[in-house]
Amino acid sequence: MGINEFEKISRQIRGELVMMSHKTGAAHLGSALSCVDILVAAYWGTLNIDPGNPLQEERDRFILSKGHAASALYAVLAFKGFFSRELLGEYACEGGCLAEHPIPEGVPGLEVATGSLGHGLSLGIGMAIAGRIRKKLYRVFVTISDGECNEGSTWEAAMFAPAQKLENVVAIVDYNKWQATGRSNEVMALVPLREKWESFGWSTYEIDGHNMAELVDLLRNIPDGTGKPVAVIANTIKGKGVSFMEDDNNWHYRIPNKEEVDRALKELELI
Amino acid sequence: MRNAFANELTTLASNNDRIVLLSGDIGNRLFDDYKGRYPERFFNCGVAEANMMSMASGMALCGMRPITYTITPFTTARCFEQIKVDVCFHNLPVIIVGIGSGLSYAELGATHHSCDDIALLRILPNMTVICPADSHEVRAALRASLQHNGPVYMRLGKKGEPLVHKEIPDFSIGKGIVVRQGTDVCLMSTGNMLPVAIGAADKLLEKGVAAEVVSFHTVKPLDRELLTRAFSEFDFVVTIEEHGFLGGFGSSIAEWLVKYPTKKATLLCMATSDAFFKEAGKQEYARCHYNLTDNGIAEEVMKAYHRKSADIRMQG
Lengths: 271, 316
Known about the structure:
The structure holds two protein chains of two kinds. By secondary structure, chain A is an alpha/beta fold.
């Protein structure tokens, strides 16, 4: 598959997310749209995983630490074939397994339950250490939000991984410049974000988090040969892919109505 | 207790290559033998307990049997949410070991006291809470915890506690150990208070009261069989803990009584009060402050007897 196909999958998943949010009234659509390309680049472009055998011990691990974007992960796992796409219709439905924040072992392919921020990177580091002890050479990809960089535990993890020279851990910051109720750099002094990670001992890259070719190229080259864990500052746009949602933080909580869904699907060239 | 823990862990790790020890920058020299033998399975996680607890969970998700170790307040209250979400929500076999529990490190001040940790951890679904009474029970509890397929909190004291058991006792999670037979009252002690409970039983015997003494090492799940027997046989059941009453061991028995009302025994709870200890002083001094002594316990039991006989006289 080429980059064009990956981009097409991204568009289809974005359309799915808009419909899922509309159908169930579940929030965080902007956050989910923001990280779609990162997830697609990882799942289609580089992760060593087998949807038919989701628990094989040598698999690469992917953790969506920003659990509020769970709909994006669910859609990716379904499109990837871990479970049926029809199941996405049960997203956020009562009694279902696709809760608005993931449940442990909720669906095949889901590694961990997240939702409280600042846990995922530490979980991933633990997984990587277990792999090292057990001589299994898998990689661990953790996607965190910029808001998540508010959490002290994120920086505990950021100090620990380089001390252990965990070169098979990658932290991808979905840097869309917003958190729930404000500009992330105004709430906390986040800037300079790349330099922060660099000074903590990570091999850092700053890229366009919506440039599929760039994302795939970078993620495929992990470990990157520096002997350090890798931090990717992925510059993204909250609500990416739907013009009237892009960089508008109202869509952290807003639910699209029927007309907005139609407009979004047209823009995504899905109808 | 801590030396027994380190020694037992070092032995067990030779036959179990899934054991991995995470220390929160504590236990200087204590784990030298372990570190020498299994350097790839020891991590000083620094003074960063939240990260330590989540990492332990990540390790458990990938087949390891992690054990976290640091001073009790820092491996319980400090990283409570990591325990709740990562360890308990995922129901992972992480063993959380708190050292210096209760008033063991009284001299270090209230930041280092833990009279709330039983309360905090036992409210979490999937969690097992074990408070070993002496070094022999520490060894037995560690072995049992490693066989248990879920989260365990082990609440340890410090070093040099008196031995109660002559050898490593038969030990099952959730089964109390009767260490002395008696007919009148049942002293149920959890954790490092067991020697004090035995001392209280001696004092009571001098006053003609024969006390059974139980090491009630597992606070969650409760030994219901033992509770049912004790509350139907004895005049009083006395819970003894180096922990606050609110949410603690005694409180958990009171909760049990709401569900299974007693026919005979009255419950008495010996615990620390709902107040910080704000003085300098070592463990023995702090225990006196909270009336957690052999004399203190015996006196409370005798007062309860007097109250009971007064009640009977009034009713008569």
